[in-house]
Amino acid sequence: MKPGRGTDRVAIHILLILAIGLTSGCFSRPRYRTSPPGSDSEKTTAGAPVISTKGAFQVGLASYYAHKFHGRPTASGEIFDMYGLTAAHRELPLGTVIHVTHLGNGRSVKVKVNDRGPFIEGRILDLSLGAARRLDMVEEGVARVKIRIIKRID
């Protein structure tokens, strides 16, 4: 069978999809801001925001995990202790220490990121049961939190 216009179009579409997929990572926005978008305090270099972890924060929903994972290895290789003060985050380097504040009640806790997750859309952090207890969020299960980096490990 001789290649025709139909197979040429399919090949072009596949190449376009691959090109878009390969370049999409080049245009990501900063994950953490040190000031609200568009504020005067946001410094720029050639129109792009200057990224710094000093004072960086993230706000979103946090949940917690416990019994099912207790005693199992985390992404860092440490054994998960549900009573410890640890957390799972999708992007922060493992070993990073963060300050987590429950925005509903003002309670806060310092935790170490030693795992990856959460893998539920809309959530930014999974806390150990021990950390969730300190934030008084066990009963509600999910809480709106603010994450501030204390010590970043790269």
Notes on the protein architecture:
The protein is an alpha+beta fold and 154 residues long. The protein has 2 domains: 5-45; 53-151, Barwin-like endoglucanases, CATH 2.40.40.10. 16% of the residues lie in helices and 29% in strands. The chain contains 2 helices and 8 strands. The strands form 2 sheets. It has a 6-stranded mixed beta barrel. Strands 1-2 form a two-stranded antiparallel sheet. The longest helix has 19 residues, at 5-23. Residues 24-51 have low confidence and may be disordered.
Q: Give the fraction of residues assigned to helices.
A: 10-25%
Main β-sheet, spatial strand arrangement: 3-7-4-6-5-8
CATH topology of the largest domain: Barwin-like endoglucanases
Total strands: the figure is: 8
Oligomer: single chain
Give the overall shape.
elongated
Radius of gyration, taken over Cα atoms and rounded to an integer in Å? 21 Å
The topology string of helices and strands comes to HEEEEEEEHE
Fourth CATH level, the homologous superfamily of the largest domain: RlpA-like domain
Strand content: 25-35%
The number of distinct helices, counting runs of at least 4 residues, comes to 2
Distance between the termini: 55 Å
| Number of spatially distinct domains | 2
How many strands, what sense, and barrel or not for the largest sheet?
A: 6 strands, mixed, barrel
Q: On the 0-100 scale, what is the average pLDDT? A: 80
What low-confidence regions span 5 or more consecutive residues with pLDDT below 50? 24-51
Structural class: alpha+beta
Q: What's the architecture of the largest domain, going by CATH? A: Beta Barrel
